[in-house]
Structures are given as C-alpha cells and as structure tokens.
C-alpha cells in the first residue's frame, strides 16, 4: 500500500478525542468500485488501482489506522438536535497531499454507528452518484467543495420509500468535515475547554492567520459569505442548509436534495421535504447567516469573559456577512455581465426581469442573442439599452451545469445498471466553460414542474 494510505493521520481525533468515537465500517457483501476519481487520486498522491485493491474505498483500513465517527449536533430546519454525528459515515483518516495540504478521507454509507438513531447506516447508489457528480461539477466551476474519490456498490439492497435500491458507499475528500454543528456539540457537551481545543485545531487547519477566536469567527463568516455568493452566481440550491451541513472551511458538503435552478425564481426548491421553502434558492444567504450566528453562540465564552461584551462582539462580526456576501455577489455578477465595475441597480433590474419572464439562469448568460429568451422583448430591450459589456464573459459563465432533469435521468439509468448517461454528464459538467459539440441537450432547461428529490 502506498505510503499516503498506510500513513493516514489522525490529528483531529488526537486534538479532540471527546468529539470522536472509534468505529469500523460494516463489512460489505460484494464491494465493487463503480466510479473512481483518478484525477483526484493523483492530486492526493494515491495510485487509483492500488486504492481499489486495498478495500479502503469501502472502509478496510491498514493495520494501525483507526477510523472514527465524528460527533456533531445541529439545527435541522431550524430545530435543534443535540446528537447527530456520523450516523452512516466515518472519518478514515487524514491524507497530506504532495503539496502539503491536509484532507479528510471520509466515507458515507459505511454502516450504522452509535449516532445512527433510527437510520440503517446505508446509502443508496443514486444519491451517492449525485453527490459525486455535484461535487465534480462544483469543483470544475471553481467553487470550494468536498469531492468524491469513488463510489462503490455494495452488492446489498437498501430499503427506501421507493422500494429496494442498490446500496453504495461514497469515499469523499474534504479539507475537513468540521461543521458549525461540531462546535454546537462541543459547547453543549464539553463546555469552553472542549470548544477551545476544537477552535485551536480548526484555526491551525483552516484559518491559520486568525489572530484570536473572534478573528477566527470573522474568517469563517467571510468564507461562508463568499461560498454562498458563488452558489447564487451559478444557480445552485443546496437544499439542506442545516448547521450540521455548514462547514468551518467554507467548502460545500453534503449533496443531498440539491440541484441547479433552471428558470430564475428565488422561490426555487427541489427537496421534497422542504415544504416551507426554508432552503429555497433566494433564502440561502440569510440562512447561512443564521447558521453562522449559531457558531457565534458556541464561541461566546471564548470571545469574552463578559457575556454581554461577547454577544456584542459576535453580533458585529456576523453582521459583516451581508456586506461581504453582497461584495462577492456583485463582483461575480459584474464578471458575468462583462462589466468593469459592479452595477447593483442593473443587476437588480435584470433579476426582476429574468424572474418575471421565467428565463433560464445559466442559459441567459451564455446566449448568443439573449433577447430571444424573453417573451416581452421590449422589456428586455429597455434593460439591455443600459448594459454595456466590455470584458470577455465566457470564462465567467458556464455553458453546462448538471441540470436536474438530466441528473435524474442519469441516476435512474445507473440504478438500472446503465452507467453510460452518468459518465457522459460527468464528463460534460467537468468542463463547464468549454463548448462541447453534440452536447446541446445539456444546455436546455428541463420542462414541466421541478423534480423533487430527497435522496438518501
Ligand atoms: N441511513 C442513515 N443511517 C444512519 N444515519 C443517517 C442516515 N441518513 C442520515 N443519517 C444521519 O442523519 C443526520 C443528518 O443527515 P444528513 O443527510 O444531513 O447527513 P448525511 O448526508 O448522512 O452526511 P454528511 O452530512 O456527512 O454528508 C446525520 O447525523 C446522518 O449521519
Ligand atoms: Mg449532513
């Protein structure tokens, strides 16, 4: 086994032993690597063939390596759950890549842990392929994200609402899986000393320039504001922005009922369980800010001995979210529109127009003649008279995003044993800015109502 694999590190478990549970993956009946990310393996300094042969992708670890389930709490749809944690996931260890960057190697679907509550510990193939595909699409779009290293089938069926589905294990990589919910758990179970240990680890790992805890908090707030702006610019709807799915690193994790919006509508929701639209496209910035306020609460005792002062300081920091978000969003919109300077009024009027005319978000920015996309062309002309692009826009506007109807089509085929559509859409979205002849269907919005999908 390569040195990188046999030397899986465990600095997290060492730093905060009270936040992990030693655990092993459930044995898998018939593991088979279905998709392996050769490019990512190479970046990590791993040999893909060796990786497949080692069994690591479904949780067989070298001697001396101790996988752990990570503990965390979280607000799910606004409701506090004191004990979540990796119910069906495991941190196998950390890999330091040849550039010296540290990554978590983490599984999903690897069997029940003590955090499983009512769950079966399993994952179905479709949702794991969705997570893999979405991560690659986001990575290709330049958006910070966890990435799939491999999806392996288990040879076992998992029962879900829709019937028996093929089971799978996702092996994924992220700069860490430390969540807002991890801090909530530390604050609730261990108090300030445990939060301090977790904070020290998170600072060293993700925000080493932070001068103190308040400054660390500020950096997380800013990283998340930048991330959410990037989601909004590409029309991404995460779908489960619970505090346990909000990272300290500012990376996107947990691709559940997520999708890219076709027609521009701030109310867009894909998740079949998000009845109230809490996590609708347009709500994502205020929800992220709300989640970050929960992080602030967990950090309060470390921010200042005096609780009123601590609250005052944390509040001032979380209030920076709006301004930082807006700065990133407007800079991104300026790039998308080919403008040298942000123009918030032009953007606001465009958004109103796209909404009223139900124009495809991704399509608009790369259209040769955007005017053709509008029913009310006079309204478009009035807006366009104020639009004077000066810069090349193609590099700022993807031609291809994983459109939900095509993702669904590919996942359905994969569950029935045909992986070809999945591999094709994966290839398409892995080069989102480059025109790919013969792949026009990937630029078309889906017709009819949005597909709702709450995959597990
Ligand atoms: N099938 C399952 N068996 C056991 N626990 C589960 C299962 N599905 C979800 N959970 C647990 O429910 C909680 C919330 O699930 P959520 O869908 O946000 O996370 P996840 O998709 O399992 O994992 P992650 O956030 O690590 O990507 C987590 O504690 C998760 O471990
Ligand atoms: Mg989750």
TrEMBL record:
Superkingdom, taxonomy of origin: Bacteria
Positions that bind Mg(2+): 245, 254
Active site, renumbered: 244
Co-factor requirement: Mg(2+); Mn(2+)
Chain segments annotated as transmembrane: none
Residues involved in ATP binding: 85, 87-88, 108, 120-121, 172, 179, 254
Entry keywords, A to Z: ATP-binding, Magnesium, Manganese, Metal-binding, Nucleotide-binding, Nucleotidyltransferase, Transferase
Keyword check for Nucleotide-binding: yes
Family annotation (Pfam families): SelO
Matching InterPro entries: SelO
Enzyme Commission number, as recorded: 2.7.7.-, 2.7.7.108
Enzyme kind, highest EC tier: transferase
Catalytic activity field: L-seryl-[protein] + UTP = O-(5'-uridylyl)-L-seryl-[protein] + diphosphate; L-tyrosyl-[protein] + UTP = O-(5'-uridylyl)-L-tyrosyl-[protein] + diphosphate; L-threonyl-[protein] + ATP = 3-O-(5'-adenylyl)-L-threonyl-[protein] + diphosphate; L-histidyl-[protein] + UTP = N(tele)-(5'-uridylyl)-L-histidyl-[protein] + diphosphate
Function description: Nucleotidyltransferase involved in the post-translational modification of proteins. It can catalyze the addition of adenosine monophosphate (AMP) or uridine monophosphate (UMP) to a protein, resulting in modifications known as AMPylation and UMPylation.
Family from the record: Belongs to the SELO family.
Protein name: Protein nucleotidyltransferase YdiU
